[in-house]
Amino acid sequence: METKKEYKIKKISDYIWEVPKEGDMKVPLRIYASEKLLKKIKEDGSIEQGVNVATLPGIQGKSIMLADAHRGYGASIGGVAGIDAENGFISPGMTGFDINCGVRLLTTNLEHNEVEEKIQLLLDSLFQNVPAGVGGKSIFKLTKEELDEVLNKGVDWAVEKGYAIKEDKEHCEEFGRLKQASSSKISDKAKDRGKHQLGTLGAGNHFLEIQIVNKIFDKGIAETFGIKKLGQVVIMVHTGSRGLGHQVCSDYLRRIEKEHQDIVNKLPDKDLAYAKAGTETANDYFKAMCAAANFAWVNRQIITHQIRRSFKELFPNSELKLVYDVCHNIVKEEEYEIDGKKKKLFIHRKGATRAFGPGREEIPKDYIHIGQPIIIPGSMGTASYVLIGTEKAREETFCSTVHGAGRNLSRHKALEKFRGEKIRDDLEKRHIYLRAKSWKGVAEEAPLAYKDIDEVVKVSHEVGIGNLVVRLVPLACVKG
């Protein structure tokens, strides 16, 4: 059995730890975690991945691992890196396979009791209107030309087609569209995988969840988001770019390995393969990634359209408003001060959420005075959270915070330990209702397969890189 390398870890504060720069490291590794969570991060060997990222050319400031960090492909999930946009690189593996896997939150004007009375009928309707699971196919048929429009226009396409209202677009990160997108940079294979998946949840950790407001930490900010009282019903959607985004990542990793074998051979892990900034490969990947991100926004928007349909059928007076939609696996060009000078960086957020503080023009006008909403999903049966972005996050983590609980057990180990039907029965005893395409998928996503979400968000709040606003608990969950 392979032994994990031991690293010298220096305690900076109760929630900040550092692996100092040594050997090939160009910057230190900073880990934002409690002592309890740090122990789990050490156990799965992901610190080695954070150190490997710190050795890469063009990395600025520090390699970052957040409280939900766990081992991933090349770079850890729950990792952030700022790379010099002129002399550095872009890495598909450091961005993630499920490009723009993200979360959106909708408020309703409904209360717990009135929704629970009709919960089985509502789940039936949602399960029909929002296909879930590995083979879940869209009920929307797109021509090749329409798919290209989705890839290039993002939520603007959904607004044009009547699947979104203007307020939906305004409440998405990047307003639901990355304008550098080019569908021409996406392979036919990727498009074939995506053309039947618009408006589908998929499997894995993706879900559609009906939730109840359980605790309000900041009443003023919560009210600005439309969250007004305890017991209010909200809806959370967690999914991404489906097979299309996965194929884009695979395509460009293969292309980089083929065209830049000299770079790959020198890497501590070939899964960190990158394309140098300014090269044709880097530019093509960035345009393809932007297009896949646009697809993900439209995917979540179509799901939102279908959720509204289901609620209207059962609650004719219901109003569902989008609070915000945030991305996880994505690379953005942003400007930061490094050693006293402003620099453009490629911020790779892999399993991490953007956390802009107040005053940024990228934030919706109705939130600009308070900061960007951060939506943090829990795991099935546990709490989820709404946080608010901070100026401190700019100083500490390139305006980033956690994206969820983070896995505690591999899917294989979860399958050995849990049974899907037993999880369903246990949840129903707690008045949490589950509808799933696959019991195997439910076992893989068991609540105990994840870290303690309350502990994870506490770290974010205590460090000041995303402050607590609202705690939400599940009433019903649709899984793939």
Describe this structure in words.
- This protein has 480 residues and is α+β, with helices and mostly antiparallel strands.
- It has one domain: tRNA-splicing ligase RtcB (Alpha-Beta Complex).
- It has helices at 35-43, 46-54, 112-116, 119-129, 144-153, 155-161, 166-170, 188-194, 219-224, 242-259, 261-266, 280-314, 392-397, 411-417, 420-429, 439-444, 453-463, and strands at 10-13, 16-19, 29-32, 59-70, 77-84, 89-90, 102-111, 207-216, 232-239, 275-276, 321-327, 330-338, 341-350, 353-354, 373-376, 384-388, 400-401, 433-436, 467-479.
- The strands form 4 sheets. Strands 7, 8, 9, 11, 15, 16, 18 and 19 form an 8-stranded mixed β-sheet that branches. A 7-stranded mixed β-sheet has the order 1-2-3-4-5-13-12, sandwiched between helices.
- The radius of gyration is 21 Å and the shape is globular.
Features of this protein?
single chain, 480 residues, alpha+beta, tRNA-splicing ligase RtcB, 8-stranded mixed beta sheet, 7-stranded mixed beta sheet, 19 strands, 35% helix, globular
Determine the structural class based on helices, strands and strand pairing. Answer: alpha+beta
For the largest beta-sheet, the strand count, sense and barrel status come to:
8 strands, mixed
Output mean pLDDT. 95
- Unreliable residue stretches: none
How does the overall form come out from the CA principal axes? globular
- Named CATH topology: tRNA-splicing ligase RtcB
The assigned CATH architecture is: Alpha-Beta Complex
CATH superfamily: tRNA-splicing ligase RtcB
Query: What is the total tally of β strands?
Result: 19
Span of the ends, CA to CA: 34 Å
What is the percentage of strand-forming residues? 25-35%
Helix content: 25-40%
Overall radius of gyration: 21 Å
**H/I helix tally:** 17
CATH class: Alpha Beta
The total domain count is 1
